[in-house]
Structures are given as structure tokens and as C-alpha cells.
What we know:
Blueprint: H1 12-37, E1 48-51, E2 54-57, H2 60-68, E3 71-76, E4 80-87, E5 96-101, E6 110-116, E7 121-124, E8 133-139, E9 146-150, E10 156-159
Antiparallel strand pairs: 1-2, 3-4, 3-10, 4-7, 5-6, 5-8, 6-7, 8-9
Amino acid sequence: MKTxxxxxxxxxxxxxxxxxxxxxxxxxxxxxxxxSRAGGVDRVADRVERTGQIQVANTGPVEQAMQRGxxxxxxxxxxxxxxxxxxxxxxxxxxxxxxxxxPVTADEDRSVSLIGTVHGWAAEVALPTGxxxxxxxxxxxxxxxxxxxxxxxxxxALLAPSLAVAQ
Length: 167
């Protein structure tokens, strides 16, 4: 009895031998692409210097905010962003910069200049509310800095120094 010989292209094993490495190649390329587009997941986007396994960041602005006892409340009504001093002594003549960091995608980070008002600082801005924001508030000279997290859907958040007071 003579069996009819099939073409190698009709055999599933030939396709698996070729397809698995090809799909792996494209999957690794997709992972590299996604990793290059993602932002950091750090709570604060400080510039960090690395030497060996030691990471050094400038905590001077946060320490200055702690010494002055600064805290602020930020509110958003859908179109106007307002910052009110909650404690400490703020220099009301200085305009402030609010940095809003997307928790995952750095491309969606924003920076808003806040102009002094009678009760605090304000700016007109449109913000997406479908995700949390990591916040940094500082004067234009960068002498102090407050941080906080703004959960999705909330209209207000508290900003405070990120370091704990040493006992």
C-alpha cells in the first residue's frame, strides 16, 4: 500500500516551529515599546542621582516646607483650580506652580501656573478626572515644595511636606 505524501506546508508542526519564535519577537518588541512610553511610578518626580546602589535626592525644599509648617488645600470645580493656605506662612506675593503627574504615563503630566488671589491662588484649567493625580506645589523659585495625591473623582486634596517629622 502506498500512502500519499502531504506537502510540508500542510503540517501544523512546521507552522508552530516558525510561528512561535516570530510571535515571541513581536511580543518582546511590543514590551520594549510599552516600557519606553511609560512614566515613573514614584510618588514624587524628583531628579535622583545614582552612585552604585545609593540614590541621592535633594530634600531641601521639603525640609523648608516642614520648618515653615506649610500645608495647602487644593480644590477644583470643573473649570477653576484654587489653592488655599491651610497652615504656615506663605508668601502671598509669589505665584505658584502646580505639577500634576499622571501615576503611570509621563506623557500626560501637566504643569499649571497659579496666580495670587484674595484668598489664595487660582487658574482656569481643564483636567481629566478618570484617574488619580500626584501633585507637587512650589513657588517659582523652588524654595519649598508640598506634595499630595488627588484620588479620582474627588474635588479637593490636601498638600503637605512628604517627609515625616523626626521625633
